[in-house]
Each structure stands twice: as C-alpha cells, then as structure tokens.
Design brief:
This protein is mostly helical. The two termini are 16 Å apart. It folds into two domains: 68 residues, no CATH class; 229 residues, no CATH class. The protein contains 14 helices and no strands.
Length: 317
C-alpha cells in the first residue's frame, strides 16, 4: 500500500465523515496500522496487498470508524421492535443486524412467533456479540484492524444473501411478516443464508479472542500445556481451566465467547432437523481454534509484540 493511496483514503475519510481533524492526523493512524502489519504480520499485510483497492479502502474505513467511533444512531434505532413487548434493541449496527437475522430465523425457518422469551434471547445474544467486538477494540491497533477485517468479510457475506448494506438494515423490515405470519420461499432461503453468515462471523470473532488468549499464554509461560492438548479436547480445556493467572481477562472473555456460541447455535438450529448443521458449525469452530493455536505456536517473540501494541509506536518515521 503506497503512501499516495493511504493519503487519498485519509483525505476522503475526513470529507465523508466531516470530522474536525486534519487529513494528516488520519493519515498517521492509517500509516501506523499499515506499518504494524508490515513489520509484525507480513503474511496478513501481503494478503491485504493482493486484494482490490476497494477492499483495502473498506478495511481501513472500518478500522478508522473504530478509532473515531463513527457509529451512527437514528431515532428509528430507539423505537420499539415489537410494540406488544415494548422491547428495544441498541442502535449499533451489530445489534440491528442480529435482531434482523434472528427475527427472520425465528419466523421464517422455525415458524415461531416473536414471544417475550424469544425477544429476550435475541437481545441477550446481540449484547453478547457486541461485547466480544468491544473487547477486541480496546486491546490495541492490531486487534482493531483484525476486527475490521472480520466485519468487512461479514458485510460481503450479507451482500451474498441480498443485503447490500448491513448498516442500513431496518429491524422493522420483517414487521409485516410478523403480522401476516407468513413469508415467501425466497425470504426463508435468505433467512438461512443470513443465519450461516451470522454464525460464521461469530466463529471468526471467537477464534480471534482465542488467538489473544493463546498469545498471552505464550508470553507468560502457560502455552506449553495448551500446545500438548489434543485438538478434540482443546475446547473442553478452555471451557474449564485458565492456564495463566496473568491472562485471566483474556481467558474469561474466551470462555464467555464459547458459552455464547453454544447458546447461539442452540437458538438458530432446530434440534430435530438441523443436528448435522450444528455439528458442522462446531467442527468449524474447533478447526478455527486449532488454527489460532498454530498461529501462536509459529509466532516468535517479535511477532507476539503485535498483540497489545500502542498506537504511538507505529507513527510515520
């Protein structure tokens, strides 16, 4: 990524968002994260370099949105999802998307009404996903960039399902379905597509949490026990024991992430008819966690520095 391209992104971002800062300040942020990747994660840097300029621009924009907290709220976001239940969902994009997806799954796939208990579950899962993302964004520039990549890949998956811009999803778009109690075959297929996107996004998010935890263990001496654990027992170990006292914060979040995953697949897959799909997703998560462990196993002391780096360490030199 050349400097001219990064400067053009920075200038456009300031214009589009009307931030009261200079393009130079934004450029320093952008240059800093690109330098971090080039110096500490060359593999990921090269992967991004080989993608299109549009994809790179979207990734960087997502990263900057986290830095400058460009989350848009509207009056509609504060309205009531279900007037009978008087239950509201937070205005953040993630929460709206989750409400939309899980609402469609409930009504179009399972043919269930949006009862108070169902809406409470949707709210709980939505808050859980938001918490996972927020935790990552508080742990350094590298995690913010990785989270931006996950979000962009999730957006591409939503587009595949017919949702061009997840940030514009209206949580009321399925209100007519709720009132009529029916939907088309196409809408049911879209619900299934969105469900799979949602679960795969969750798996990527959980794997990144595991990577943070494993990196902490390797830096503090608890990784060897984990590294000797059989792949099939890896998830069980994480669910039951913390291998490093100094990594307790990362461990608690990783454990919560696993708990959220199991609650989610229990909610979105029918126990009687979708058991194969449930097992498929569990195996996908198991493989991703294994890959996260391998990534940390291969990382040397220098590469481990990317976890938790401070922004001022990567300004233009």
């Amino acid at each position: 990524m050349d400097v001219r391209f990064l400067k053009s992104i920075s200038e456009a971002y300031v214009i589009d968002t009307e931030l009261n800062i200079t393009p130079e300040i934004v450029f320093n942020e952008v240059y800093g994260i690109v330098k971090l990747l080039r110096d500490y994660d060359l593999e990921l840097y090269n992967e991004l370099y080989e993608t299109t300029k549009l994809y790179q621009q979207r990734i960087i924009k997502g990263y900057l949105d986290q830095i400058y907290e460009q989350v848009k709220y509207t009056s509609e976001d504060e309205e009531i999802i279900n007037e009978e239940l008087a239950l509201t969902i937070a205005g953040a994009t993630v929460a709206k998307a989750i409400a939309y997806v899980l609402g469609l799954v409930t009504m179009l796939i399972f043919k269930r009404p949006l009862t108070k208990a169902v809406m409470a579950t949707i709210s709980f899962l939505g808050k859980g996903i938001e918490k996972l993302g927020q935790f990552l964004t508080r742990h350094g520039k590298y995690m913010q960039m990785r989270y931006s990549i996950i979000q962009e890949n999730s957006r591409k998956c939503f587009v595949k399902c017919g949702i061009d811009d997840p940030s514009k999803i209206s949580i009321f778009s399925y209100a007519s379905i709720r009132h009529t109690g029916s939907g088309t075959k196409e809408s049911a297929e879209q619900a299934k597509c969105l469900r799979d996107c949602y679960i795969e996004n969750l798996i990527e998010l959980i794997a990144l949490h595991m990577e943070c935890y494993f990196a902490c263990l390797k830096k503090t001496g608890g990784f060897e026990t984990l590294n000797k654990t059989d792949t099939d027992d890896l998830m069980k170990m994480i669910s039951s024991v913390n291998l490093g006292a100094s990594c307790e914060g990362f461990y608690n979040q990783a454990k919560e992430a696993l708990d959220l995953f199991y609650k989610t697949i229990e909610f979105v897959y029918d126990k009687e008819y979708d058991e194969d799909l449930r097992l498929e997703m569990v195996n996908k998560l198991r493989q991703k966690i294994y890959q996260a462990r391998q990534t940390i196993q291969r990382s040397d002391a220098r590469q481990l520095q990317r976890y938790g780096q401070k922004p001022e360490q990567f300004q233009q030199q």
